[in-house]
Amino acid sequence: MKSRPDDTTPGWIEQEPEPFSFRSIFKWGAKDRFKHPSTGFLNIIKQELGLSQADLKSVAHTGNERVGDHQKPGLRPEEIQTFETIVGKDNLFLDTYSRLKYTTGKSMEEIYALRHQTIGQICDVVLHPRNKQDIKRIVSFCHEKKIPVHVYGGGSSVTLGLRCLKGGVTLVMSTHMNRRVAFNETNQTITVEPGMMGPDYEALLNRAPEELGAENRYTGGHFPQSFEFSSVGGWVAALGSGQASSYYGDACDLVISQEYVTPTGSFKTHDFPATATGPKLNDIMKGSEGCFGVLVGVTLKIFPFYPEAANPFAFMFPDLQSGIRAARQISQAGYGMPSVLRLSDPEETDVAMKMYGLEGGLPDRFMRLKGMNPGSRCLLMGQTEGEKAFSDTVFRQIKKTGKSCQGLYLTGYPMKKWQKGRFSDPYMRDALNDFGILIDTLEASVTWEDLSNLHSQVRAYIKGHTHTICMTHASHFYAQGTNLYFIFITRMDDPDRFIRFQRGIIEKILENKGSLSHHHGVGKMMGPYMEAHLGTVQMDVLRAIKRHFDPHGIMNPGGLGL
Amino acid sequence: MKSRPDDTTPGWIEQEPEPFSFRSIFKWGAKDRFKHPSTGFLNIIKQELGLSQADLKSVAHTGNERVGDHQKPGLRPEEIQTFETIVGKDNLFLDTYSRLKYTTGKSMEEIYALRHQTIGQICDVVLHPRNKQDIKRIVSFCHEKKIPVHVYGGGSSVTLGLRCLKGGVTLVMSTHMNRRVAFNETNQTITVEPGMMGPDYEALLNRAPEELGAENRYTGGHFPQSFEFSSVGGWVAALGSGQASSYYGDACDLVISQEYVTPTGSFKTHDFPATATGPKLNDIMKGSEGCFGVLVGVTLKIFPFYPEAANPFAFMFPDLQSGIRAARQISQAGYGMPSVLRLSDPEETDVAMKMYGLEGGLPDRFMRLKGMNPGSRCLLMGQTEGEKAFSDTVFRQIKKTGKSCQGLYLTGYPMKKWQKGRFSDPYMRDALNDFGILIDTLEASVTWEDLSNLHSQVRAYIKGHTHTICMTHASHFYAQGTNLYFIFITRMDDPDRFIRFQRGIIEKILENKGSLSHHHGVGKMMGPYMEAHLGTVQMDVLRAIKRHFDPHGIMNPGGLGL
């Protein structure tokens, strides 16, 4: 492994992972893209984590070892033969590498394991279905033979969503099932197969006149941080939220109709804009994480694309409480929502000031004069979008609200800086991990009433682990509340210790009236907490629906805690 | 029965119904309020229905006969004794009048039956539970003894929602369970018992500073036509939509959390603003029409109340297509939605012109000069609401859209006329029915793409019945489509013939890609169509949930077609 050791920066690895290596599985995103912390951010990390330059010189556990082909699939030869008959020889993989790759998401826990060349519970066979018919035959056969079925979309799960607790089949949707099915400009909807990836989806809509013969350009309005490596089906199956959700809605708000292949039949909903025909069947399936059936088609709302109408903005507030007050007023006033809105707590604000090169400059000095000091000041930034008159009105009103809550308007500069890095930041994790520095995140939704307490309690728990950075922001806003997103950075060598620490944070979130998940989903990480969180009577409803669709329990066993 | 016969107007009944009469049950609204058609509207009716003055002189079947106490309850004495022990003697009624009253909604079919003194399938006993504990004990006992349980909210169902196919108990929620449980201004939510009536709910929020010690005034934003006689629980249980839903959302959008008493336990959801913890449990219960359990508490979103920011508007369009184009552009542009938006088809527009006194006047002549003639012109009207800057922006943009689609701006005058009558129009039905003139409505949601065809096909079917008025409007708007609301007026003496005609309209709606219901709900009227409409695989999911909550099938048997 080549590196560039010198006295001031660590030897960041900027080479593609070895083919068929563990690293090639866990590395975020494109194999030839890298990002490492800025000097400013690195200095904070060194200081807070108590690291010397010496600590940052050696790269241990790169995971660049090749995955050995040691694991025999636990299926019978005739079962494998049946799968081959269904999807064709080219779309079936039995090698350990493929099976490990499509069983692994991007949680810190999984990355940790792969760096240590640990192969846990993986699927027996990877299939790349070509179409709905393939999936019908696969699910039907698996139902008959009681073989577990799992679905791989973009692979960006951070909740052990892809883990195969009982072996079985994993279906990779992005290989073939990534096509546009229908575009309906009159209804402002598009129907796609679930394996279409975020950037392809968005590009298709942005270029609707050229690609689809449309009159206007559109946007899907859904930009999770994993956008570049997430699939449309994954957004719906795990109830994601995009960074612009405060205006466009969460993934669940975007769905108009869906089709699923389940062990007990093909489930399909109508595309009515609204109905009063009993509990909404669409809603029973959204967020089912492959536990009821396989999503094979989805119709989504699309929105007119007005990039020129975007107004970025940012404010500094003297403290978290005034920032919360402003964010709540913006969310409750009724003048329309900004697309992006992000409120950083003091620790994250201090990091942002350094990352965006604002610390120590003229704006910083002005802030301090105004009593906005490191350790207490809070950054609120965002962007208004939509039709120009709407976007401009919301922008004007937000500026009034910000100022009335003691905010100092900082222009759109910090927001533009954030936008540049927003999809590439996950690359930094690999760089830090190379030096044994863990960076992970947990998130929860919370009402306005419980927000401050949740923040302070969870933060206290995280900071109780010495030499740990804890940056927190709220980034998805509703009139009734928001979410909290905790980013924690620490040095920890023992995977088990890390898992205990991380599970401790989850428990602290639940104790303090945070939801188990705002937009990361459930997977097998949050699954064990579901019953306690929702309550047994409520969890029993999910179990009843599960039993109905999947009486043999083959659909993503352990997902959603089912 | 006193009446005022003369040569030009029929002898409208303007006396309170006799106590304990059939009429006292079916008469809309307050017993001492009446409304009859304007001379202009009556002339249209006479002309279209081919009625002479002679036809409008005698009042047949007023239903003012007293309900006899002939029906013995089908429960055992010891069962009745148990109910009495639970709710107390004062809250239990066994007389036929009470049992008929609380088993009857406001469908034309039910009114017809009562006018003819027909008592169909009614409950055995009426209970007025005092609190959640009462309901727990009632549901538990009924589950054990397999006694059907029904819930009566405001009684405004037009889908046979209250009919008791197998006798049993009806719980009246508005008597005691009409209290505020909690108000949370920080979260902009209120928690109420389901029996609170619409006007009480709205008044409480409008007067939040005085009543609740709040900083600001609020609105619930939910104003169905039945507002004055509908309950909050009914809005949620049957998925209603208010006349301002295009901005505030439908009932299902307003719910934050709920509590139900079911045969298998008390079901309660969290009040998080959003979650990604699997399929949303809230959504599984909304619209369940008492088939899974009894709603005992609901937390709803509230909105800042800015009555001074409302901007009413109206346009005339030369034809339906240009009106649809404008409404679609308004709904899809992304500049924010008006609260109220109503597009009338030509027949309804012609009636509105007469009702609002516009026909023949200067505006009418100007319209005709502009090529906007009776028989083709269409009225689009509405109102923007919300925070002032938002409301003004939406208003300005709507005016631009209207004009760009060939609309003639008519000021807010027609909208103000409509607002005056919007809650009292249902009173007119009784007046017309007194002369054997039927007026009924059916409604469906539909995508923009299917809108014109649904309108023309259903209208053709209705008009195929000679001497029938058919007025249609769209009144709830979404980027993906709208609803159609068909009002039909005809003379028909035979109840069975009417039911065949009405069911024929439902079938025509379904054939032409309308939904079975947009906001009226399902009840026992639409229930039999549910499986064909949703498809068996989909209906089976509702059946599975039903079995889970209610294994003995006691909760509102036949509701939702379950």
Tally of helical runs of chain A: 23
Main pleated sheet of chain A: 7 strands, antiparallel
| Average pLDDT of chain A | 95
What global shape of chain A is seen? globular
Would you report the number of β strands of chain A? 18
Share in helix of chain A: 25-40%
Major interchain interface with per-chain residue totals = A-B, 94 and 94 residues
What is the CATH topology descriptor of the domain at 180-304 in chain A? Answer: Uridine Diphospho-n-acetylenolpyruvylglucosamine Reductase, domain 3
Radius of gyration of chain A: 24 Å
Task: Return the structural class of chain A.
Answer: alpha+beta
Summarize this structure briefly.
The first copy, chain A, is built from 23 helices and 18 strands. The radius of gyration of chain A is 24 Å and the shape is globular.
Give a structural overview.
The structure is a homodimer of 562-residue chains. Among the domains of chain A are: 180-304, 2-Layer Sandwich (Uridine Diphospho-n-acetylenolpyruvylglucosamine Reductase, domain 3); 307-408, Alpha-Beta Plaits (2-Layer Sandwich); 426-518, 2-Layer Sandwich (GMP Synthetase, Chain A, domain 3). In chain A, the strands form four sheets. In chain A, strands 15-12-14-13-17-18-16 form a seven-stranded antiparallel sheet, sandwiched between helices. Chain A has a five-stranded antiparallel sheet with strand order 5-6-10-8-9. Residues 1-6 of chain A have low confidence and may be disordered. Chain A is an alpha+beta fold and 562 residues long. Chain A contains 23 helices and 18 strands. At the A-B interface, strand 9, helix 12, strand 11, helix 16 and strand 16 of A face strand 9, helix 12, strand 11, helix 16 and strand 16 of B.
